[in-house]
Amino acid sequence: MLEGLTLENKAPGGRALWLLRWAYKRYTRDYTVYQVARRPGLPAGATTRDMAGDYARWAQGRFDGPVDVIGFSTGGEIAQYLAADHGELVGRLVLSDTGCRLGEDAKALLRAARDKAARGRAAEAQADVAAHMDFGRLGGALVRLLGRRMMKEPADPSDYIATLDADLAHDATEVLPKIDAPTLVVAGTRDFFYPEPVLRETAERIPNATLRLYDGVGHPVGKTHKRRFEDDVLGFLNG
After folding, report:
1. Residue 61 Ramachandran class (φ > 0 left, ψ -120 to 50 alpha, else beta)
2. Buried b (16+ CB within 10 A) or exposed e, 200-228
């Protein structure tokens, strides 16, 4: 599991680890699950392709053969390069709530978030990003309000800023045809970050891809439609 945008690159602990165990409970019936954070101390200018290289170095020699990879949002951007550049490591690929590039409205949001983070307001910036997820209009306002109060400001926002820069620069359009792994692209038609045309283009460019769109649903489908999402993903992985 390659995670989406986070304020810090670190392994989860405490309540966060308990929530992950609950979130992945159905997967652990058939699989050993690894959620791997991006490495801390990302250099300025690091790209999603560079991050895929980090994951490849982590995986090499750790497993007996290819493993199934699920990439969520930013993690899905990285997973595209992981599968294209290091295909020997990837068995089946799930790209969840992600595409070959961001939509223009999402880029504007992430540029504003980057500016806030650079001024020492990373938690507020992340709350603004989270408010554009599919919690409904009222839910988005609550996330923006409560998120600013509940999210802890990172001691060093450099990894967050580097990841935002990588998100903004991400465009894997040309490498998608190199992906050999059977691939499932699953997202909602109302995804703010990756609009439907981008999602369709992403699936069309991958030779062995299946596209599953949830009509009228936003970002992220795995949380708002958890049971349906797990049915689709596990059906694909076990297929």
Report:
1. left
2. eebbebbeebebbbbeebbbbbbebbeee
31 within a domain of the structure (yes/no)? yes
Q: Which residues form the domain of 205?
A: 15-103+170-238
Q: Specify the 3-state DSSP secondary structure of 109.
A: helix
Q: 94: closest CA among 107, 116, 109, 75?
A: 75
Q: Determine the Cα–Cα distance for residues 93 and 78; give it in Å rounded to an integer.
A: 12
Quick: pLDDT tens for 175-205: 999 999 999 999 999 999 999 999 999 999 9
Tokens of 9: 């690159």
* CATH assignment of the domain containing 218: 3.40.50.1820
What Cα–Cα distance (Å) separates residue 117 from each residue in 151, 205, 228, 238?
A: 13, 34, 35, 41
Q: What is the pTM of this model?
A: 0.93
| Locus of tokens 């699950």 | 33
